[in-house]
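Internal tracking record. Fields below are filled automatically when a chain is submitted to the structure queue. Please do not edit lines marked as system-generated. If the sequence contains nonstandard residues, flag them in the REMARKS field before resubmitting.
Queue: standard
Priority: normal
Entity type: single polypeptide chain
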Amino acid sequence: MRHSFIFFVVMVLVLDAFSANAQESACGTSHLLLVSDVNRIYADNGLTIANLLAVLKDADNQILPNREIIFTSTHGVVSSPAITDSLGIARSVFIDTGMPSKNADGDIVPAVITAKYNPMSLTSMVEISILERNPVDRITLRAFWGPMTVGYPDSTIVRATCFLSNDDYAPRGQFVFFEANPGRFLYEVVIVSGSFGQAENWYFPKSNTGTTYLRAYVINDDSSMIFSNEVEINLGSTKQK
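SYSTEM-GENERATED OUTPUT FOLLOWS
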């Protein structure tokens, strides 16, 4: 959510800057520009998405609100139509259908997403590849805290970093499960956010002495479970193994 918000804010501030994978269309001096926050997603049935913005301006470089923009794609699915808002921006989302974007030879090719404003015959395109979904292969779990006191509501942030089988970071939207014995996490499940495969949670120790063990895991599409390293917590000190 934070990633998408930042993307939208930046695009509003720099509407005249063009994305590296965007193509602008002009009729006279009217303009339509389509941009995306990513240039690839995975064939994961909608787990990863691309956020799209289409910016429409007239011949005087003025924004055009309340105009219908049509979106199409050669692979996957794109939401359409969308209406430009008070900033002249129409928003759409591009997702996969469970299949990578391949040509007739079976090679990965970019999906071409097109935005159209028919009254002015304007079009703009971006290319986004739909890659094969690689399973999560390993998880690194870390906890960050100072000494913890028995009987007090201390807590510590715990971060799980998930890696795919090709060593890429797990994409945004990946579900990560957390478990503690004893004690508890703020959330049982956290979704990976950002571009570094990370899911963060808060651990709250039980009000007793002894040792607590923390662990995170992921369930892949084939139902295989991938577990992180185990983090061992002792009150007043920390140790990971």
